[in-house]
Design goal:
It is a single chain. The protein is an alpha+beta fold. The protein has one domain: Beta-Lactamase (2-Layer Sandwich), CATH 3.30.450.40. It has helices at about 15-30, 35-50, 85-90, 145-155; strands at about 55-60, 65-70, 75-80, 95, 115-125, 125-135. It has a six-stranded antiparallel sheet, sandwiched between helices. The protein is globular and about 40 Å long. The relative contact order is 0.16.
């Protein structure tokens, strides 16, 4: 596995995803440990895009439990249907929030978070984990992020 990412500093967000995803695929194909892969994926996303917080919550019993992440300390457990992460789990779909203060029931792990996208990952048709990405900028995520982060989660599903 390469320990450095090769991403053009002048690339658009779309181009950075296009450059990043094949490198992430190569990284996870050479390592089968879930924790190691999730840790490196979170680090790669934060390093490439400068997001405020990137991490994973894993479904354990009836809660989402904090997994590997990059950024400030975070909420440890999230209940089914609560906040953006719990909503993505309950509804089994990506939830994109342009302004977290306008999202009913938003769980503020950090008051610096302004927008968020949460993408579920599935095992046997059920949500097994979610990718949570926060920005300290309003309206920082769009359909480009959604499309590519969903591709990333399909990759993760191959080793769940």
């Amino acid at each position: 596995m390469a320990e450095t990412l090769v991403i053009s500093e002048t690339a658009t967000r779309e181009q950075r995803y296009t450059e990043l995803l094949p490198q992430l695929r190569a990284m996870v194909e050479s390592e089968r440990d879930l924790t190691a892969n999730l840790a490196n994926l979170a680090a790669a996303l934060r390093q490439t895009f400068g997001f405020f917080w990137v991490g994973f919550y894993l479904v354990k019993d009836d809660q989402l439990v904090l997994g590997p992440f990059q950024g400030p300390i975070a909420c440890t457990r999230i209940n089914f249907g609560k906040g953006v992460c719990g909503t993505a789990w309950k509804e089994k779909r990506t939830v994109l929030v342009p302004d977290v203060d306008a999202f009913p029931g938003h769980i503020a792990c950090s008051s610096l978070s302004r927008s968020e996208i949460v993408v579920p990952g599935f095992r046997n048709g059920e949500v097994a984990l979610v990718l949570d990405v926060d920005s300290d900028q309003l309206n920082d995520f769009n359909s480009t992020d959604q499309m590519h982060l969903e591709k990333l989660m399909r990759l993760i599903e191959t080793f769940l």
